[in-house]
Amino acid sequence: MTETVLMETDENIALLTLNRPEKLNALNYQMIDRLLLLLDMIEDDPRIRVVILTGAGERAFSAGGDIPEFSESVKLGSEAAVKAFVRRGQTMTARMEAFGKPIIAAVNGIAFGGGCEITEAVHLAIASDRAIFAKPEINIGIPPTFGGTQRLPRLAGRKRALELLLTGDSFGPDRAYEMGLVNRVVPHQELLPRSFALAHRIIRHSPIAAHRIITAVTRGLNTTIAEGLNIESEQFARMAATQDIREGLDAWIDRRTPVYPGL
């Protein structure tokens, strides 16, 4: 059976590819479960420092949830649908958002529904100039279910998010950049090279510091500034006990490039 998510490693970088191109990489339950399994494996592998996530084929990053599969869950009642579909999808996006290693979405085409919600949840995103986004769940009579009603307003602002959520209209990569959904837009043929270049810029630095930064931002984003500053202080204190901080300071004083474990 063909794997629904492919994994390749290139030195310290893992490339995950959503692999249902004939279905526009729709997120069925098997794909979500495999993504979670691979993230668990990557988390436990100290050699992997950054994850890049993209879609197979020339058309789609991911067109969102697998609607025929989801509709079968709905027929079993709301409790079954919430358990099988909503909780599974929310677990996936929450896992990505809080993942201790940076995840970069390389959005190579259609990013609708759950595909857009993955883009919202990951730490960084680069979009091809062929990418197209949408929050089309209202077209089938439901709200977004993988976190889109919560993350998109935090990224784009309440009114811009509500326009997209209430109309289901699609929007291009330039608007996604303007709203803060992606970090940059690049020519399609440069998408993976530019994503790998960004990953290499990250892995020059301490992996523990990267983890502490992600944790501080993720936990602090929806708190008060005072609570956020406490989180920041706590993350520094945890960093201060590591060899990485000593290496970083010594390298700066000695005017040399720091060398961290795994490089």
Summarize the structure.
The chain has helices at residues 29-43, 67-75, 78-98, 114-121, 148-156, 158-167, 173-178, 191-202, 207-220, 225-240, 243-254, and strands spanning 5-10, 13-18, 50-55, 60-62, 103-107, 110-112, 124-128, 132-134, 170-171, 184-186. It has 263 residues and is α/β, with parallel strands linked by helices. It is globular.
Account of the 3D structure:
The chain is an alpha/beta fold. The chain contains eleven helices and ten strands. The strands form two sheets. It has a six-stranded mixed β-sheet, with helices on both faces. A four-stranded mixed β-sheet has the order 4-6-8-9. The longest helix is centred in the middle third of the chain and has 21 residues, at 78-98. The relative contact order is 0.12.
Oligomeric description of these chains: single chain
* Helix content, binned percent: 40-55%
Q: How many beta-strand runs?
A: 10
Instruction: Look at the structure and give the mean pLDDT.
Output: 95
What is the first-to-last residue Cα distance?
35 Å
Shape: globular
Radius of gyration: 19 Å
Strand order of the largest sheet: 1-2-3-5-7-10
- Could you describe the largest sheet, including whether it forms a barrel? 6 strands, mixed
> What's the number of helices?
11
Strand content: 15-25%
What ranges have pLDDT less than 50 throughout 5 or more consecutive residues? none
The structural class is alpha/beta
In N-to-C order, the SSE pattern is: EEHEEHHEEHEEHHEHEHHHH
